[in-house]
């Protein structure tokens, strides 16, 4: 069974984060919601209260296949301020493990130098922060082990792409049909 960690912080965009968690869990991926706040209780960007499964600092990442950074303001800068989040993203990217980010969060990957020479996307308001990347204005961009998406409007295709990567195309197709996603 594949494993993924989705990082949540104060101000995370809840739909971007929870759609990923939901669709990956439907695909039987072992998903951990990891708080990057030092507290398992998190308030999202639109004041939804979420309880994380664990603190980011307490997770053993050795058998995790993918880490995911949702967007949101101030969620994205709060993720960028957490050393466990940034160190884990760097470690995963450099070792060939999967790293994914949506909306404003690809800017965190760029600030860590992880998008240098790669194709990527982000929310239009953050595309200028993708230093070193070839910026594409498309829903989802996969370049090697890095997957990015441009925002909430791309959250379902983003999550389905992550399902495809961790559980296979047939499972992604099954879930697409089950949720009646026709795009």
Describe the structure.
33% of the residues lie in helices and 22% in strands. The strands form 3 sheets. It has a 7-stranded mixed sheet with strand order 5-2-1-6-7-11-10, with helices on both faces. A two-stranded antiparallel ribbon has the order 3-4. A two-stranded parallel sheet has the order 8-9. α5 runs antiparallel to α6. The protein is globular. The two termini are 28 Å apart. This is DJ-1 family protein.
Listing every helix as H and every strand as E from the N terminus to the C terminus, the arrangement reads: EHEEEEEHHEHEEEEHH
Which sequence of strands runs across the widest sheet?
5-2-1-6-7-11-10
Beta-strand percentage range: 15-25%
Radius of gyration: 15 Å
Q: In this structure, how is the largest beta sheet organized?
A: 7 strands, mixed
Distance between the termini: 28 Å
The best one-word shape is: globular
Number of strands: 11
User: What number is the mean pLDDT?
Assistant: 98
| Uncertain residue segments | none
């Amino acid at each position: 069974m594949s494993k993924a960690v989705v990082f949540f912080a104060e101000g995370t965009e809840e739909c971007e984060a929870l759609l990923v968690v939901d669709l990956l869990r439907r695909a039987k991926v072992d998903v951990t919601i990891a708080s990057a706040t030092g507290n398992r209780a998190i308030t999202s960007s639109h004041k939804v209260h979420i309880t994380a499964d664990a603190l980011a600092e307490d997770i053993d990442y050795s058998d995790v296949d993918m880490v995911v950074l949702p967007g949101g303001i101030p969620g994205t800068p709060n993720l960028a301020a957490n050393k466990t989040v940034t160190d884990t993203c760097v470690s995963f990217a450099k070792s060939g493990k999967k790293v994914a980010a949506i909306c404003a969060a690809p800017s965190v990957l760029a600030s860590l130098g992880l998008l240098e020479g790669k194709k990527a996307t982000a929310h239009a308001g953050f595309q200028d922060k993708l230093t070193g990347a070839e910026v594409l204005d498309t829903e989802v961009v996969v370049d090697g082990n890095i997957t990015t998406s441009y925002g909430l409007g791309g959250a379902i295709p983003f999550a389905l792409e992550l399902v495809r990567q961790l559980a296979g195309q047939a499972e992604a197709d099954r879930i697409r049909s089950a949720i009646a996603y026709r795009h």
